Amino acid sequence: MKTSQRRIRAVAREQLDRRLSEIRTGASLLRPPPRGWVRELRSALGMSQADLARRMGVSRQAISQLEQREQDGSATLRALEQAAHAMESELVYAIVPKHSVRETLEQRALRVATEMTRSVRHTMRLEDQEPESGLDERTDALVLDLLESPGRLWSASYDE
Q: How far apart are CA 49 and CA 60, in angstroms?
């Protein structure tokens, strides 16, 4: 990959990290209430299941099922979006990583590089040799190399 493409991807990751950081800060506000967003908002609006069903062009039973599916995690985004629209609302959807994208990549690169150098470390331990500082330097260099092409980090052979 060309250096300019790598830089563009790095800038895009930085921008995504900034956006996700803002979401992560307020992520607890986005967690669904125990009864689910559809039921919670519908009730807050004073809208019955029959009212929502009419606005969506479905049966009352379909609304009951939608609310149950939302609670058990099997509701589709399309159904939630239709319900949101019928309640004059907007569906907001995000996948928010636990750490920044940069941190995730760095942690993964270190794990993969360590795994890749494991056999050398194991052999040195068997021979009662301390790992040379050069091995640690090679691991650090490998981490940097892996970060240049992050697609290499996700091989199944490195999953725990």
A: 6
Residue with the two structure tokens 């992520």? 27
- Give the range of the structural domain holding residue 59, as residue numbers without chain letter: 32-86
Task: Please tell me whether residues 65 and 115 are part of one structural domain.
Answer: no
Angle at 94 between CA 25 and CA 73, to 5 degrees: 110
pLDDT digits (tens, 9 = 90+) for 29-62: 888 999 999 999 999 999 999 999 999 999 999 9
What 8-state DSSP symbol labels residue 158?
A: G
Which 3 state secondary structure label does DSSP give 1?
coil
Q: Could you report the per-residue pLDDT of 125-146, keeping only the tens digit for each?
A: 656 565 555 667 888 888 998 8
Number of domains observed in the structure of the chain: 2
87: how many CB neighbours lie within 10 A of its CB? 19
What is the pTM assigned to this prediction?
A: 0.72
Burial of 28 (0-12, 13-18, 19+ CB in 10 A): exposed
Within-domain flag for 79: yes
Q: Are residue 150 and residue 103 in the same domain, yes or no?
A: yes
Return all residues near 150 (Cβ < 8 A) that are at least 6 apart. 105, 108, 109
Long-range contact list for 45-48, CB < 8 A, 24+ apart?
45/87, 47/87
